[in-house]
Amino acid sequence: MKMIKNLIPIFFTAIILFSSMGIARAQTPLSPQAVLNTFPYQQSADANAALTSMDSWKSADWKTFFKAVEDTAQQTSFTYALHAYVNKVAQKQTSKIAFIEILSKQLKNTKLEYAKILFTEELKLLSDNSLVSARLNILPTQIILARNENKNVTPAQLLLDLQKRTETTLNVLEKKNIIWQASKISDITSFMFIENFLLDEALKTNAAAALARLALTNTNIRGAEVRSILEKSLPLIRGEDSAILVPALTAHLRKMPYDFGFVSLFNGKDLTGWKGLVGNPISRSKMSDTALQAAQIKADIKMREDWEVKDGLLNYKGNLHGENLATIKQYGDMEMYVDWRIQEKGDAGIYLRGTPQVQIWDTSRREVGAQVGSGGLYNNQKNVSKPLVVADNKVGDWNTFHIIMKGDKVTVFLNGMLVTDNIALENYWNRTLPLFIKEQIELQAHGTFVSYRNIYIRELPSNEATTLNETESKEGFTLLFDGTHINEWTGNLAGYLLQDGALVVNPEKGSGGNLYTKKEYSDFVYRFDFQLTPGANNGIGVHAPLEGDAAYVGMEIQVLDSEHPKYAALQPYQYHGSVYGVIPAKRGYLKPIGEWNSEEIMVKGTKIKVTLNGTVIVDGDYAAASKNGTMDHNQHPGLLNKTGHIGFLGHGDIVRFKNMRIKTL
User: Fold this and answer.
1) Terminal-residue alpha carbon distance, the chain
2) Distance between CA atoms of 591 and 594, rounded to whole angstroms?
3) pLDDT for 64-102, tens place per residue?
4) Contact 579, 620 (CB under 8 A)
5) Nearest residue to 640 via CA among 544, 575, 540
6) What is the tens place of the pLDDT at every residue in 202-235?
7) Measured torsion, CA atoms of residues 420, 423, 424, 430, in degrees rounded to the nearest 10
8) In terms of DSSP bridges, do strands 496-499 and 334-342 run parallel, antiparallel, or are they unpaired?
9) Helix, strand or coil for residue 93?
10) CA pair distance 368, 357, nearest whole angstrom
11) N or C end: fewer C-beta atoms under 10 angstroms in the chain?
């Protein structure tokens, strides 16, 4: 475990920052898990609150905290938190003595080699002040970046500086240092920046390990591109790091949600995903489909005159009569990162939901009020329009926005500084109307040259409950799950969790087990959406009692990634949608892994019909099908049941469900 000893100097570099921080008393102590979620930290205030909370922990809290070292997915966060707290208590004799006692007890009881080495190193630091000085003396020399003289440099600004640094000639050691510094910036922008180093033979191992740690410590770093990068990184992780990171990353990829991940709005090559501007949201809504299509063709031609992709940058050429560039896709609640750079007298902006705008301009243009800085909601009249602070870099340097929009409220960070704080964006096109729920994002054309890069966006899950559509409501359907609670269900509640409006099997709590409706149903139409993970296995219980194997004491409709190679030897009655052991389903109608499928199960008497993504894959009579024995040659007494519960039948795999609704017949 030489790895721990190698990591100590690196971690120590980060945590000595606390010695110069004033520790503020947290109003409400954070739980051990909340503290772990804070590290590796981005904001000093969050870290201070976490460390102060640890001062007030009881023995049960410490027990929970130290248990985390056994979880490979949390070992990085645990190590950072422990290092930081050791540094804090080392400054006060009474606190130091008390924590030495706690840590000594943990060292005595732990059986984990990683923990033994880590705790021993920390006890050495607490017991001998000379070791602190010694470690400071052996710290590697750090490369000084252009802006490092500013002690208040934000992580976002540091990343901009690191990107600028890579434009110069660097040796391998300097590049490794850049990877290490970028790995402490826990967001999608640093992740995508580090991914570039995977192509360098001398750096790919460092980059792969850094990418793994970023993904493990920030679960919002996700999406199809992220998954692909992590899968590419997995075999590149080498040496001592692999013992912890490889199994942790493998488990993380298995659990990583497919929804609400980041996507690149700009691929660095062409204008894929973008279109020319046609009118505004209100004028477009009044156009016929034919008229809109014709106008879009003209707008796309104009787009190619005004916008270009050059050297990996998305540029507005500065045409005086140019038009905005718009996303093809519409967005509602979202989180967005975008780098931008203007020239002297530059003026631009980001339209949200087709509405102006998060302002970009040259702050020297005092004649138009630009001295207030960029990042404000320029067109607001009633609500705040000016940014809180001026955070712009000098003209010609890159800037970065982090924009968060929920409902009509907008928050903007410019170069890591909060400039717009949860302010409602007004509907510029008709101020008597509320803001549009979903609309396109636009990059404004305002007659001056502007460049963009690193544009990443993720849609945010809604906290609002799912409702029935008008048709299903009239037909008599009722909701069994609205995305906010599982009050209609009973059984192994711990084996399923709520995540982003979906019900997710939680294998960490056993196999997931069975979850049943509280009510029993006889004849019904049951509709639901589901999302499989590779090789996943689940099932829908029908006419099931609350005890016993539902596939036999009731009926089980297969929910299965039956196209996965490990199921090559399946029997026909085991394919997805089959009445298990009784009636086989047609194959070939599942959507690709990660996409949502829609299914309907109709039971009336002994007849059953299963419709998958609009195609009927089962249409039969289970009484007739089992009259001379079942296909699997097993006893299925549940086929005689006239009523029973509907259930999810977990088999230890992650499967997601949503939009469950039912109509009794």
Assistant:
1) 64
2) 8
3) 999 988 887 777 788 888 888 887 887 777 888 888 888
4) yes
5) 544
6) 999 999 999 999 999 999 999 999 999 999 999 9
7) -50
8) unpaired
9) helix
10) 16
11) C
